[in-house]
Amino acid sequence: MPFATLMKTTFSCRYFYNFFIDPRVPWPPVQDSQLSSTFIVRIRPYGLGIFGCIALTLLIAPLRTAIDLSNIALLYVLLVVATAVWSGRGPAVVTALLGSLAFAYVFVPPYFSLAITEVQHLITALIMLGVALLVGHLTSTLKNHVEAAKVREQHSRALYVLASQLTAAQTPGDVLKISSHFLTTSFSVDDVRIFTPDAFDNLPAPLSPASLADIIASRNLATVPVPGTTRVLTVVPLRVARGLQGVLGFVLDDAGTLTGYVRELLEIMASVVAVALERIHCAELAKTTEVKMASETLRSTILSALSHDLRTPLTALVGMADTLAEGRATEPEKQRAMIVAIRDQGLTINRLVSNLLEMARLQSGAVTLNKAWQPVEEVIGASLQQMRMQLDGHPVKVEIMSTLPPVEIDSVLMERALCNLLENATKYSPPGTGIDLSAGQMNNCLEIEICDRGPGLPDGCEAEIFGLFRRGQCESNIPGVGLGLAIVRTIVEAHGGRVDAENRRDGGACFKVRLPMETPPLVAELEAQA
Fold first, then answer.
1. Which DSSP string corresponds to 356-409?
2. How many Å apart are CA 182 and CA 33, to the nearest integer?
3. Whether the Cβ atoms of residue 387 and residue 347 lie closer than 8 Å to each other
4. Whose CA is closest to 106, among 161, 60, 147, 40?
5. Could you read off the pLDDT of 133-170 as tens digits, one per residue?
6. How many domains does the chain have?
7. How far is residue 405's CA from residue 415's CA, in Å, rounded to a whole number?
């Protein structure tokens, strides 16, 4: 190759590199920067292929006599394959054509001429062109398949993440937030909304109730142009087996992105969102139904208990008051007995109302524990003193460990809990039977146990008996609304302890209170605090 021709070609390659490949050179010289950048993005892959072909030709031109023509043709085929992998089908075709011309012009005798005199050289050039075009096409197709597979894999992974996140969504707002994140990261959309059926009458432009009705009837994804822009509003119905949950709407910059694959992916995404909305709706419906059923059950239980346990003593009170008022009980002993009975019935009603008020106060969470260091024997003694009238006819056997240290408790509430346990024991124990009360220490816990000789607890109800309005015997003539043990459990748990119930082997029931024990302060510290 003459030196002048080589230099001219070299300078041409340099200018070609500057124009087509170097991103710092603003070419073509147009005023619109966006148009310029778009042009460069589209032309640069072709420039890379052309530059590679020229560079390869310059590199092996000095060695054309030392390299066989078939090997040179393979080098151009390799360049076409690399161009197809790097830039795609179009640049590979251009590179193949240019490479064939360069091969025929520079390397096939006569040199620097396209007049091929030998048939075998013409066949070699044609075969090289055909192989380059075929291999470039196949390589580009394979590259497109690989890129499409990567995109599908990314979308599948994003769809899996979307489904897993929607399983934890608790409200429609959570569903909208998760769906919006998926759409904005996967398809670069904005203004994502979910329209529920009750909001179909107030739709933003350009969506109207009539157009939305047509979209819902078609059951497929649809687009509505946004007036004055090139953007489109995309609407996808959210349908499940039980009906329409709403529609999903979002704005796309270009309707051309809605290919068949993208439409299918968006419809799958819409079905996942619809299932999540249906699950939330069903969960809210089930929760509402459960609350209604629980409220109705509680209401019926309260009314049943109050109508039985308040009406009976009130009826007795009215009857005895009428007897005394009419003077039918003239003997002093009968009058005294009736007065005592009136007092007992009044105390019964007072205990029932007190339990109701106490339970309401404890359940409201407004109870503050006034803890203080108290001797265990004094708390137990005060409880027995308060229950002396109810315990009449039931001998109580008390066993308290002599080495028990003081405990930090709310003495008023704890006495209330022990009184309820003692009252429960007297209710269900036959007259004349004894009640055992013991207190001791085990594993840094204070254990107070109250046992009776009654009928015991129904099998399997040892834990349920501490619930609200739960009784050991649902139908009996024993007064009470089933709040005493619930109050006990609330008080004990407020102290950080627990209460359990079990049947005795020789008959009866035992209730065991466990309270945590801490190291009591010294007497000097207590006096200093006082």
1. HHHHHHHHTT------EEE-HHHHHHHHHHHTTTTTTTS-EEEEE-TTPPPEEE
2. 32
3. no
4. 60
5. 777 777 778 877 887 788 788 778 888 888 888 888 88
6. 4
7. 18
What does the DSSP assignment read for 273-324? HHHHHHHHHHHHHHHHHHHHHHHHHHHHHHHHHHHHHTHHHHHHHHHHHHHH
Quote the CA–CA distance of 449 and 515 in Å, as a whole number.
12
Residue 330, domain extent: 316-361
The whole-model pTM stands at 0.48
User: Quick one: 133 and 214 in the same domain?
Assistant: no
Which two three-digit tokens encode residue 428? 């269900």
| Rounded to 5°, angle at Cα 78 from 74 and 79 | 120
Residue 285 has pLDDT above 50, yes or no: yes
448 and 503 belong to one structural domain = yes
Q: What dihedral angle (degrees, nearest 10) is formed by the CA atoms of 357, 359, 362, 364?
A: -80
3-state secondary structure of 515: strand
The one-letter amino acid at 110: P
Task: Say yes or no: 105 and 219 in one domain.
Answer: no
Closest CA to 104 of 82, 81, 83, 127: 127
State which H helix or E strand residue 206 sits in: none
Q: Which two tokens stand for residue 306?
A: 């109050």
